[in-house]
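Supplementary Text 2. Reproducibility record for the structural model of the 420-residue chain.

All settings were left at their defaults, and a single model was retained for analysis rather than an ensemble. We include the record here because the model underlies the residue-level annotations in Supplementary Table 4.
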Amino acid sequence: MLTRKRCRRLGRRRRPIVALGLELLEARCLLSGSAPLNETLGTADPLGSLDFGGHAEASAVIGAGPAGAADVYWYNFHLSGTESVHLSLQTGEVRSPLVGVLSLYNDAPYDQWAPTDPYTPTGHRLLAQDDAKAHGGDATIDRILGQGDYWVAVSGSGNDTFSTLIADSGLDGSTGAFRLSTTTSDPGPDYDDPTVPVVLASDPAPGAELAQSPFVLRFDLNTAIDPTTIITYNDSCSDTAQLWFNTTNDFSFSPSCTATQINLSSATVSLEATANELLITPPAPLTAGYYEVILQGDGPGQTDYHLAFQIDGLPGNLDPTLQPGSTPGLPYEVPNITDGRLHQLAGAIGNDPTDPAGFDVNGVQYYHFSVAGPKPYGLDAELFAGRIGSPLAGALTLFRVDAGGNLEYVASNEGTRNTT
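Retained model, structure tokens:
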């Protein structure tokens, strides 16, 4: 039964990290009935402890809650040991039009006085996400997870960026019914001994192609590891943690270990104990090129773990001086801004390797767009940071490029208009 009337302004909320759009705003009143209670991570519905062979299901309707098409429903489960976890968002079985999104989060409590991972201030990091729109069928996540607590968020395609702590903080997305299925199984003999550390996953992911330098290299382990045993100060093949770099993607090391090794002697190495995450913070932002991380003895069967990834900035770029967005002369381009669509671009502040200050809090990123013709336009630009779990306190500034190519100040906004 509909019991109350709720009005909200649909000046759409944006995805990370900059959203630009031209649209008319309207006021809309939504009727809502018995509101779901699991709209944030803190009010998630429990699926229980899912040990080997465990299975749990839950069902609901995206679009039936007070956030309407921006609904996000949360669930949590516990693992007593390392398990292979399969998450599936089934819609065909319930004959639903929903095109769903599954998001998996860990438990990494944040300590403001001694933060292990300052880039996860909400205490929960997004581990994996799958949008069914990208491949058709149902949204699924398959992941080997260690002991601990985990959270699953269910939303509609188009609403894949939202706050873990604030309800109705994302965009309108697909709607419809769903059935969430969670199943665990044996990950294999390499993960049976809880006293032998094994890397389960990494961030960046193997083979990742990144536009910018990561702030932290993260490695999810099946068990805790003493970070003081990670040797990074010899700058040699004897280090238990090594970071290698080149511009040719050739890591066929010679016996003398002559490939270019990045000195990690001043890197920060720490362990997020609750999530069993090993964190290595490079001493400076990484330049464009190919990278390989080697963790000795931390692969399956106590083999060496290898992580390869690329930083290109611009597609195909291996010039470390060409960092897009770092100057007005090399901005990120936003094409076709007047096509009526929402344009979303990801970015970061403080990781420009050409900045001599390194991880510089005074960093700036530039985005360029053009409008032409006699028609007047209204611009709506919104920065997502804290809403997506970022520690960034951001500001937006709009400039006009004059006839001489100089930047002419138009307007700016520092901080947020979100009083919550």
